């Protein structure tokens, strides 16, 4: 009944290729089905003004989409002169989510910027960006620990994200674009490897949902995140 | 134990003064404690390009904050040359939320723009904006129905929003600024008068939460929204 | 003969509600007929670079209009990405006018920013902004004097502003919007409580005027400013 | 007593070289002492949307200053990404002033854009721009009349502008930069060839002035404008 | 003597992977050594206003660099609010170069936009973008010919580009980043498969060069372009 | 056969009027036929951050065009909010070219900004800007040497630029606008007084060219630059 023929609770195929670019301190190309996101992590010694001198670290994120990542070419944000509302919303979410899994004292006064650039989009780009972004962050932190710049591991728990939603009246896991564009309700669930919640966003465009449905979507999400965390572990071992 | 002395499940005082400005088709000044938001609804015959000719209506929202609505003066967005990420995120939320309560066929091919401008801020401005925005929308639609431009009521169910969160380890309803700035977890719940969910956003900055806590916060939100809907009904009777 | 039925030299009703918002060091909502402007004064320790270290203070102003303050909704300047020419022109005028009544040595090296935001417009918003802006400034300076940060009063003379113009061939005081949009000549007069001139702007759009008419408009303005200064004094006593 | 040795009521030397550039329908380089402004008039068939179909013409103006027109290099507005407040204020003034001398019915539904670019600045650039701008406009209209596109002369009365102010306690005509930067009060007077007023702007930065002083400055201005109009007539004969 | 150990006239390894993304009408990932550029071609029915109705086609290009494509993270152009001068210069070059190989009558009134996004940079990104951009263009045109939308092949001759320069006093082919940053003179040569020149840019930063040196660099470039054209043919066969 | 009646290798008339504006440390109005460019040089003590403390000087350039320098009025870049791609490309070229003739050690840690503003355009504005820009630079450096701020002359060799191209199948020198808009191939050659090359840009819009043609265009350019350098020497003697 799903356009892709998947079961209701079946994720798309996930692959994570680490070291996709050579300059970044950490990088990977994550593929969740036909959604491909390049994630890089950059370590810098400077921190934002509001924590200067605090001894605390910072993790932030930026998100972009190549103009022809989508079915129809979108105008390049650099040429239109500003990041759209959707971009801003997503990159703030990625940053908040990744920070939730970081011990900022252990990280020390430095900043890690995670860039997530969508090479090809087929639904769920923000979730793939968070899941792949954590891998890039993990690899960058590994480098800091190898050099001894960081002693105690600041990444206390993996962070991954997945979507679920009501499609054609049924709760389904990991919506692809054809599902996403038709779904009455969709949610994004950002969770830790130990099953804690970091952020939940459920939204109904021109529709409503019940607490019971909310529970079903959460059940699916827990299953999906567990699979993603396993993929992260495999990639960064 | 709350800075304001309120009980854990106690809302701040709510007042809604309708007709606060004379030009708008609908307007109100909503006060939720010391958070004061001016909401106006403007009816226009044009609709966005993507629904032109569809016969469907559109509801959209914009959000702003006066520079000295806050404790410290913020730079005016008009002078800094763009709306910040937070502004964009909030106004998209308001628009989506209000649309969820609208029968766009009944509204007919016209657009209603709801402007929410924060006169004074003390936490929870986005929730006050949604709750007050719906009142402005209600009043504007009443005008359309009085003139016969709209025949069947397109506002199928009231829409209101409230926050809850974990403050000092306890779930509390309707966070004010001192609570909001200290809360480990906070959520915004947008619901209908009949208790359905439109949007749920729960977020932990540098922290995590459990499904059980999520349930407690939802319980509080249901109580708060019921009180807000009663205030909306009283104001627009 | 005036649309409002007022006499040629009759001002609209004026009210000034002080303390309209709680965060600002000084604030008021001034109403001149149906023109309502919220004015707030913010004290900051920093001054613009060009007077740093001079020991002199600075007073500046910003002006904005809520999108639906007017009969037809105007695009939000924050969303269009810049302040329009009219906004820039008006806020520079407000700043210059208020500074004319300030002893900048007595103020000391600090800056006061006066924000004037039009809640509802019906002609004469720049004059109401100056008159109300001075009240906000007065209240903020009072606070500085109460704490002893400022010893000698830097506000040497009140500042107020009023318009007059030629409407239907007759000189009239305090133009409302229906008059303003039809007037062949209109002027804005910024004066002190002691009757001195700070700024005079008289302008004929597609028309011309004589020195004799200029004198008549000034006579009206002197009467209007005297009434406004009385209202300022009453409000800040 | 004036830095330049001029009498109190003495203008700087004025020269107007017409046809300074070959492409524009009208152009001149006006020199008022060391203030040099290049003015060009461009005729276009399109008019602004708000008068489309009205049969009325439009005259508008833009103003710019080359980066090193001034003693210290100013940042190029094209590179800083926007026109400053002073630029916007001045170009609106030029446009309003020139329109006051135009019979827009006689002009017919077309637009003339007058560009005023300051090549070298020494005080009084806005007045020189208006005076020279009218010459460019005159030449462009002459072309329209020669071709028969316009039959009845739409330029009913010349428009010229001059400054006067209180310098070192004395009223002086046509302030140059050393005077302008020290003057307590300065005014710009835009008048017609027949001695009518179009716009009066008098302003005291950190000072005040009386009605009597206002009269003295107006007297000076009337003398100056008469001389400028004579120079315009000589240049466009 | 070259940092990479290459001979003076030796290109880096070149690979072209076609079909790298699924949505674009043509796409490839071109690798010239460690410089990796993703090129996509998008076919649209609209053309720029200046050729509307002419029956002629248009080819244009945009260029971007991911923030961490370089050794040090660069600010994202979308977030800084505009494309830098270097970006603008490069994308205009790519567009001009590709158009030189296109019969715009045969293409018909449609536009192909070639997006070149640098995934990893190690010198010579503009040349790689042109060479890979032509491949994406070739693939998109193939699609148009397969569907019969285009009958006669508009790609009259392949287009490819290579750099050469004076490094450590010696003429070398295909500069990588360590060479490029030290070279006294560097040139970019855009040529056709049949050995004709489309664009030559030779530039000495803080240095000069002779006509004889210019000839040597051209000789190297001819060799390099021949190899690149062979790689293009192999990839698009 | 050329529209202007010139011989194939004949330059337009060149005149250079130095001291055109009084404030700049160096200035000239260069006229190459009907192309008129005002060039000013500004000396500042600050240098760009990347050479601060290095003891080296910097020369940079900005380029602009007055709105009616061209046959049709162009939108003012200050009002459109950014410099177009063509402007950016040209001003980067001017800066690079002038720097090539400067001994930055001899100049000392200061910056000279050369502003080139096109008053009237008829083809070849970038070449006129470089040739005139060098004259303004020469005059400014003369001032530094007269005051003793600079001891050894940092201008090692004059810099001038000229265009040549293939027009109607023939190589011609110094293209004017009618030729430039029809030319299949055009090149800009920036050279030193001693005949060395600084930058060569040859470009074919929708066409191609051979190495033999390239040589012919270079021959013409060498002749043109020699004449321009003579004019520079005459003007700055």
TrEMBL record, chains A, B, C, D, E, F:
Role according to the record: Phosphorolytic 3'-5' exoribonuclease that plays an important role in tRNA 3'-end maturation. Removes nucleotide residues following the 3'-CCA terminus of tRNAs; can also add nucleotides to the ends of RNA molecules by using nucleoside diphosphates as substrates, but this may not be physiologically important. Probably plays a role in initiation of 16S rRNA degradation (leading to ribosome degradation) during starvation.
Q: Source organism's superkingdom?
A: Bacteria
Per UniProt, subunit arrangement is: Homohexameric ring arranged as a trimer of dimers.
Answer whether the UniProt record assigns the keyword Transferase to this protein: yes
UniProt catalytic activity: tRNA(n+1) + phosphate = tRNA(n) + a ribonucleoside 5'-diphosphate
Q: Which InterPro entries match?
A: ExoRNase_PH_dom1, ExoRNase_PH_dom2, ExoRNase_PH_dom2_sf, PNPase/RNase_PH_dom_sf, Ribosomal_Su5_D2-typ_SF, RNase_PH, RNase_PH_bac-type, RNase_PH_CS
Annotated ranges, domain Exoribonuclease phosphorolytic: 10-140, 157-224
Q: Which GO terms describe its molecular function?
A: tRNA nucleotidyltransferase activity
Q: What EC identifiers does the entry list?
A: 2.7.7.56
The yes or no answer to whether the keyword Iron is present is no
Which positions carry the signal peptide feature in this UniProt record? none
Quote the PROSITE patterns the UniProt record gives: RIBONUCLEASE_PH
The organism is: Lutimaribacter marinistellae
Q: What is this protein called?
A: Ribonuclease PH
| Family annotation (HAMAP family) | RNase_PH (MF_00564)
Which keywords does this chain's UniProt record carry? Nucleotidyltransferase, RNA-binding, rRNA processing, Transferase, tRNA processing, tRNA-binding
Regarding protein family, the annotation reads: Belongs to the RNase PH family.
Question: Where does the chain bind phosphate?
Answer: 86, 124-126
